[in-house]
Design brief:
The protein is α+β, with helices and mostly antiparallel strands and 336 residues long. The chain contains 7 helices and 6 strands. Helices cover 62% and strands 8% of the residues. It is elongated.
Length: 336
């Protein structure tokens, strides 16, 4: 009886455990549902990078071939345009001569006009005049034949120029496509390289990060140091990167005194950055937003706007009275 009771209890316990596992599975849903994809291992990343490197070599070779093809197309298109320009000049000259010829024929009245002028005079003189007239007509016919030849040459040059122009546009389009493919792959390679650097620190369940103490001679946190390194490697420092400063003390607010902020300068001396540098600032800000949760970015300030990881969107800021104060000449990145 006791043995039966133990068996019954054991089966009941197994059923209870199975029910508990089923309940947990139902709560979790399908595998991976609602969970972030597992972070790839260093080995996986290095394999992906090796594969991408092979792809990049192929794409860069195709891009090079497209550049060579474009350069050839540019040369033939230029030569065709030069021929067309010369043909246009010859056509204009021939056309002027034909117009002069037409005017001369109109004024002289042709053979009949000359015959009328000679009347019934000396036959020898008449024959001489007629021979002269025939010579003039022969010269005029020769000019007309030249005009027809020049006109036909011009048409051929014009058609060739149009063909070469179409080939050039096709080559340019092909080059743009190959360049776009290569640039997209290079961007993916950069992203994978970023992932090889583990973000230092502890991340909470809500996605925020446990604060870190500044360290080292630069007085910034390890998390901020990683972002500074990645931005410098990816975009170049150019006008410099400023991180730790007193800023009126910690009581004055801000992350610079805490070693949790860096300014990535785009121009110097308080001047507005060029269009190219402003575009680089956009790229830095976009990169920081893209990697914000992985790297522990808290907020970004750029061009009198602020982006916070909590909201995931930009909002305007009040005018602080200057290019630097309004963050037009630098991108400010703060971390947790």
């Amino acid at each position: 009886m006791a043995a039966v009771s133990r068996d019954v209890l054991r089966r009941g316990a197994i059923r209870g455990l199975a029910a508990s596992i089923t309940a947990v599975a139902l709560c979790l849903g399908p595998a991976g549902s609602g969970l972030a994809e597992p972070k790839p291992t260093t080995k996986q990343l290095r394999k992906e990078l090796a594969d991408m490197q092979k792809q990049s070599e192929s794409l860069i070779a195709r891009y090079y071939d497209s550049r060579v093809e474009l350069q050839k197309a540019e040369k033939t298109e230029k030569a065709a345009k030069d021929r067309l320009s010369r043909a246009q000049g010859e056509l204009d000259l021939a056309a002027r001569e034909v117009r002069l010829l037409a005017d001369a024929r109109y004024r002289s009245g042709g053979m009949e006009g000359i015959s009328a002028l000679t009347g019934a005079g000396d036959p020898a003189a008449l024959l001489s005049r007629m021979a002269l007239t025939q010579q003039i007509l022969d010269e005029q016919d020769a000019r007309l034949r030249v005009f027809v030849r020049v006109r036909d040459d011009h048409r051929r040059a014009r058609d060739e120029a149009r063909t070469r122009e179409a080939e050039l546009k096709k080559s340019m389009s092909k080059l743009d496509k190959e360049k776009d493919r290569a640039e997209r792959l290079i961007e993916k390679i950069k992203d994978r390289i970023d992932l090889l650097y583990p973000t230092p620190g502890v991340r909470r369940a809500d996605g925020t990060w446990v604060p870190q103490l500044p360290s080292g001679p630069d007085n910034i946190t390890p998390r901020m140091r990683l972002i500074r390194q990645l931005v410098a490697q990816r975009f170049g420092p150019h006008f410099g990167i400023g991180c730790f400063r007193v800023d009126g003390g910690i009581a004055g607010g801000g992350e610079h005194p805490l070693g949790r902020a860096c300014d990535f300068m785009l121009s110097g001396g308080g001047a507005m950055p060029s269009a190219g540098e402003a575009g680089r600032g956009d790229e830095i800000a976009a990169w920081a937003i893209k990697n914000s949760r992985r790297l522990g970015v808290m907020y970004i300030i750029y061009r009198q706007r602020i982006w916070h990881v909590r909201t995931g969107s930009w909002r305007g800021m009040s005018d602080r009275g200057g290019v630097t104060a309004n963050h037009f000449d630098h991108v400010h990145i703060s971390v947790y």
